Amino acid sequence: MHILVIEDDAETAAYITKGLSEAGHTVDHAQDGKEGLLMGMGNDYDVLIIDRMLPELDGLSLIKTLRGAKNTTPVLILSALGEVDDRVQGLRAGGDDYLVKPFAFTELLARCEALARRREGEAAETELKVADLEMDLLSRQVRRAGQVLDLQPREFRLLEYLMRHAGQVVTRTMLLEHVWDYHFDPQTNVIDVHISRLRSKIDKQFDRPLLHTVRGAGYCLRAPD
Fold this sequence. Notes:
This protein is an alpha/beta fold. The protein has helices at 10-22, 33-42, 59-68, 84-92, 105-119, 153-164, 172-178, 190-202, and strands at 2-6, 26-30, 47-51, 75-79, 97-100, 127-130, 133-136, 141-144, 147-149, 211-214, 218-221.
């Protein structure tokens, strides 16, 4: 991916740029809103990462200007402002996703990759596959090694999200927002319960586990080595 990072904090910008570059992506950096607007309008990027609090031109005004000029590049907003109203303002300004500081780099990377896939029209796919685990999005049927698995609606949605992010560490925050539509942590064990039930259905009867717990980070669905 070709990504533009618009961030005035030098330490944060260096952290993001280094991580994205190490992940194999091409990264440009703008230090303020005006520079970011010029770069965003003048180049073809796959994703824009925009800090909300920027000098010269704030992040929301920048995004509104881009959208007003018919620029449809996916935007991930970064901000220390994490209240529901703050997120709503960012999304209504034209942002596609919103990540609150401080953040885990793995989550930022996963969100960028998801935005890029969405732009490429991957949402139109009808089948997902990880090793011998297959999901038909039209019939809503799941099979492993040819065996039909009986999943409840929430389990299906959880598995779909994990399969769309196969090989990546998916955090608790990501699951709460994208599977449960929570923009806060209700401090319950709802995720642990559903992960346990899902694991018993997709792994228990089979030799090689696919769903793994990454201690202190989240969960990862991946094909066996």
